[in-house]
Amino acid sequence: MKICIVGPPLSGKSALFGALTGASPDAVSTKGADPLAVVKVPDERLEKLAAVFEPKKKTAASIEFLELSAIAASEPRKADFSEQLLGKLRAADALLAVVRSFRDPCVPHPRKSVDARRDLAALEADFLLSDLAIVEGRVERLTKQVAAKKSDRDVRELAVLHKCRSLLEAETPLRCAEFKPHEEILLRGFRFLTQKPFIVAVNLDEDEIRRESEVLAPFAAWASQPNTAVVGLSARLEREIRQLPEADARSFRSDFGIAGSALDRLIAAAYRMMGLVSFFTVGSDEVKAWTVGEGTDAVRAAGAIHSDIARGFIRAEVVSYRDFVARGDIALCRSAGALRLEGKDYAVRDGDIINFRFAL
After folding, report:
1. Are strands 62-67 and 36-40 parallel, antiparallel or unpaired?
2. For 329-351, what is the mean pLDDT?
C-alpha cells in the first residue's frame, strides 16, 4: 500500500514524513527525488505471536509513504499540479493531505494568513478539477465512438462518466458516491483522485492539542464524508517524540494527552477506510503479518503469499488470534475445537492465524 503525503507549502509535510518514518529532518529536506520510505505497520498481535513461536524471522506488514514536493507559492495557481505530480498522486492507494493550523512567525504562511479550512478546500478543488478534466476528455471521445459504432461497453462507460461529471460539477468528491460493481470496474483505470481514500492531517500548535475536538470542529463536513478521515496532530512534536526511547515517548504523549502515535492513528484510519484486515502465518522459521481486503476469500489470501499455494489450495487451518492467545498453543486450539478447517470460499477475518494446506 502506498500513501502520498501532499499539501500546500510550509504546511509541515516534511515534519510529518519524519514523524511517520523516523527519517531525520536533513534527510527529508534534501532536494531531488521525492522522499519515499517503507514503514512497518505496528501490530501488538505480531509481537505477541513472535514471543510465543520465537521464529528466526519476524515480518510486519508495510506501508510506503511518499512525500510529494510542494509547489512554490509564487507559481501561478494553474500550475499547482503538474502532470508529473498528478501521475504520482494517481498511483497512490490513498492520499494524506496536510493542512496548517499552527502559527509560527518564523515560518510565514505563503498566503499571509493561517486558515486550514481554506487551504483544504483549495486542495480538494484542485483534485475535483483534475478529475473533471479527465472525465470531460473521455466523454468527448466516447460520444464520438458511440455515434460512429455503438458498443454496449462504451454505452455503459459513457453513462457512468456522465454520473461522475454531474458529481464533480456539483463539487462532490467521487468517494462520496455509491457505484455499482460493474461501474467500479469501468472506473478503475482512471484512478480518480477524489475517489481515493482521503486522510486529512490538521497540523496543530502544541497549545491546540489539548482542545483538538474544538479545533477540528470546522472540519466536520469533511469528517462525515465516506472514505474520509480527519486527524489532528502536531507534526513537529510527533517527529521529536519519534526520536525518544519508547518509555519516554509514552510519558511525553501522556503529558500532552495524545492517545497514540501519529503513525498508529493514520494507519488505523487508512486500514479502516480501505477495508483492510491482517492475517498471520506462524512457525519457527517466520511469523508474518499479511494485509488483504476485507471479505477476501481463502484462495486469494493464499495467493497473497504465493501463487502456487492458491493454485494447489486444499483447505485452510484457521484459528482466531483471540482463541490462540487464550490457549497459547496450536495443539490445544485443535483439541478444544477452536482450530477450524475452512474451504476456498472462507472470508478471511482480521486476526486470523492461518496455515494453508496445498498440493504442488
Report:
1. antiparallel
2. 95
